[in-house]
């Protein structure tokens, strides 16, 4: 294989990744509204229903890494993608809250397997000399889908008020992604068919446990933000049409940071990218909740224009900062996890970092709903700031040194 980064198979895998995350994000910001308006679900019930998806993905992640490393990856990829697409039809058939809960919870299984298998296939089709850089650019497909899909979803809902149409859009896009992945050609590689004794390390990368634990904090933060943003904006800030714009600005930040951070990844500066990214994200989360809070405190002393300006600054400015931060942090953490694993554990390494993100997302969705029900959405987002700050402190005090001691690749640091 040549050293050309943008080879045909890599581009196909990125296009399929865009499709799967488009199908995911076109629904994500609107599902809380759907559950509230269509089924009359309360805040804590919404959190319970939505967290089931992440919990199932989390449960299946360790097995996904094992299957991807032990069986033909193309087969695992096609089966998981096919199931992922089919489940969107289940939303159309779910006529009660219980049925929707069952479908949504089960849907997390193929999503967990698909994200592991597709990202591992992306690594396989990359030339080894461009792998660190390529992993960083791979996330651009996620970011583009995050920029476009919520905007499309909000636009469709605004003019049609039809969740059924949104479910059909997600189904069709997912099927298109499956068709693209079907044409990917993988290099011939020997699969590891249980040649070694099964151990915990075949399902979760034990040597990268602290990196994964650190990622939980950042997954928690984004779990609360992505699932309660629309309701928070509507009920607390009075912003009814800003969800799509928010995700677009977040994705612009993600894309810019991926492009700029590619140079640092090419030089192997993983801990630098991770550290700078998480600090920028922390500033973004703090701005998100701090500016509206200050605006409400000084509501009687400031003109309404200044109050609204502060609210919009905190709301939309935080989107760009969170995107910039996550765009630096995510590929750095993924590369750190891969570089403490052997080549035969790529699937396990990918599943480990995604497991950690899923744990954080699941906790964020579940606890965010409970805290919002008991104390309000402002309290839930202040919890995000505290958890995110704890993750930043953990990285600089322990995780950075932990990675450098276990790093198997001398060209990165």
Characterization of this structure:
By secondary structure, the chain is mainly α. The radius of gyration is 21 Å and the shape is globular. It has helices spanning 8-25, 31-39, 43-70, 73-93, 97-124, 131-160, 163-181, 209-235, 243-266, 270-297, 304-338, 346-375, 377-406.
Assess the beta-strand content as a share of residues. under 5%
Counting DSSP H or I runs of 4 or more residues, the number of helices is 13
Overall shape: it is: globular
Helix percent band: over 70%
User: What summary fits the major beta sheet?
Assistant: none
Which runs of at least 5 residues are low in confidence (pLDDT < 50)? none
Outline:
With about 425 residues, this protein is an all-alpha fold. It is about 80% helix and about 0% strand.
How are the SSEs placed, and which strands pair?
Layout: H1 8-25, H2 31-39, H3 43-70, H4 73-93, H5 97-124, H6 131-160, H7 163-181, H8 209-235, H9 243-266, H10 270-297, H11 304-338, H12 346-375, H13 377-406
